[in-house]
Amino acid sequence: MLIDLQHISKSFGAAEILKDINLKIEDHNRIGLIGVNGAGKTTLLSVITGELQPDEGTISTANGLSIGYLKQNAGLERGCTIWEEMRSVYSQEIALEQEMKQLQHQMAEMLPGAQLEAAGQQYAHLQEQFEMRGGYQIDVNINRVLNGMGFEGKDRNTIIQTLSGGEKTRLAICKLLLESPQLLILDEPTNHLDFKTLLWLEDYLSSYKGALLIVSHDRYFLNKLVTDICELERKTLVRYRGNYASYVVQKEERLQRLQKEYDKQQREIADLKDYIAKNLVRASTTAMAQSRRKTLEKMELIEKPYYGKRPAKLHFEFEREPVKDILHVSGLRLEVGQGSEKKVLAESLDLDVLRGQKIAIIGVNGIGKSTFLKVILEKIPHVFGDIEWGKNCSIGYFDQEHTDLHAEKTVLNELWDRFPRKYEQEIRTALGNVQITGEEVYKKVGALSGGERSKLKFAILMMEHPNVLVLDEPTNHLDLATKDALDQCLSAYQGTILAVSHDRYLLNTFPSHIAELTDSGFTTYEGKFDQYLVQSAGMQQNSKAEGASLEKEKPQANEYYRTKKQRSLDVARRKRIQELEQLIENSQAEQQELEQSLQNPEVAADYKRLEETCKRMEELKDQAAAWMDEWIELNG
Is residue 345 within 8 Å of 336, Cβ to Cβ? Predict the structure, then answer.
């Protein structure tokens, strides 16, 4: 046991934030902490780390427990270099190394004798300690972590204060990973990370020796890493075994079970009250009525299950069918800036979008994904390239910056002014569908949170009835429940989608294709994000192999005269790679079918079928992970 919280409560003034919290963290636990904004997650983390003292309850910790805590958007602020800061983690090992060097110089000046022998023994002891502490791997470990976290090619002598905010946050993660505390607490660690860095961090944390406590809205990240989900809701904590997908199913099961228990007790209470009312005044039954009244008074009431705020109802539909060829882009160049400040982000961009396709655009940060959407929608001009939209295309655009909203308008007027022929009740219903109700409709748009502005934009899009959705980071600022609702909505949408997103969970739900944008153009992959990972890894491996063969003017003799056994093994390896790719694809297809079946009310109501489905999904994920590891090894 690393830390044990028992009956923890915490208030700030009259506001109670945490109530009767119980949480035990064992060594090697992988816990995801979730909850709506304001639920108390940061307060709980501060109690765990000792920054705040609870008002009630006890906290037990293991002797000498080391805790590493990355606060949300917190970065290193130092006047030293990257290399100096990373090496400071190994101050004890470096001190040993300096002592060894000093002893080497002393030994070089000593004459043979007892003193030299004693120095040699001391040096051997220091060297043993240095090796045991991994001293010879210090620079290797530092470079491995820095390169994995996106600092490959970055001058190690760069002063930390000159870095961007995102770089400082990534550097803070690097230092924590090198420190390797027994309990590593990360608050929204996936902010500022691109796909490549995210994948590396997930792989690194999957083999982390200590315990992990992670606060994240990245459902893919939680799915891949955690084995427990702890949800903070209405001041209390509920723990679910499994990853995020398992939590969604288990929470629904739990609420259904609690609802049945509550309904059963309410019927029992109603029966008791009815009996008491009818029999209390009758002499022959008074005693029995009084007995049942005592039973009613002593009854421990079951609290009505809390389902949270009603989830957003998102549904996009259209009235007019467009032509087959939705969009044709040819030879497009993406540029930003003016005059001498002009910069080319990408060029030679070709992309064709057909009716019904759902294409997700991905790429490294700053490559021009959002710029591409603005160019094809003529929000910003372009000089080189052709853009042609098909006839009857009705386009709905979700701008992540919400630049088309008016800060001074009320929410009600923002929507009503766009659809003046609608009745007020229709406008209020549309806002209610995205959880904006009551007096909230009179709030100024400028006073809304990022998530509320996104929901308002969804209400606008639903009333526009577009047959083409162009979405720029639609899940930014959304709570988990609304993200889940958007997943289902986009999957059910019958129109065409062109979306930019870094939300890998979303990218595994709706796309029919993944289009990766680089500075030299688009590469399109059929399928969702996980299929893209397999396909892109295979293409990179083939590219490396082709490059290696072109570099060699003459094959070596042993390449011409491989043994029969070697050739046989090579054939078997290639065959196994193909088998693994097919197995992974089949597994992912079955997982998708099972996930869709969970939305079936009949399955959800049948506990046995629900349990069997969840068990099968876990088996498929574990097997697919094993196949992926084997595939990577064979391609290495």
Answer: yes
pLDDT, one tens digit per residue, over 248-270 is: 999 999 999 999 999 999 999 99
Say how many residues make up the chain.
Answer: 636
From residue 480, alpha-carbon distances to 131, 362, 471, 501, 521 in Å are 46, 21, 18, 16, 33
Q: What is the mean pLDDT of residues 325-342?
A: 88
pLDDT-derived band at 192, boundaries 50, 70, 90: confident
| Token code pair at residue 461 | 């899009």
Q: What angle do CA 543, 546, 547 make, to 5 degrees?
A: 85
Chain-centroid distance, C-alpha 625: 18
106 contact partners, CB below 8 Å, separation of at least 6: 119
Closest to 257 (Cα-Cα) out of 610, 614, 615 = 610
> What residues does 349 pair with on adjacent strands?
332
Would you call 452 helix, strand, or coil by DSSP?
helix
Angstrom CA distances, 7 to 88, 232, 370, stand at 38, 14, 48
Instruction: Taking the CA atoms of 364, 370, 373 and 379 in sequence, report the sign of the dihedral they define.
Output: negative
DSSP 206: H
Tokens 């029969």, located at residue: 564
pLDDT band at 309 (very low <50, low <70, confident <90, very high): confident
Give the max Cα distance, the chain.
115
Q: How many angstroms separate the CA atoms of 497 and 318, rounded? A: 13
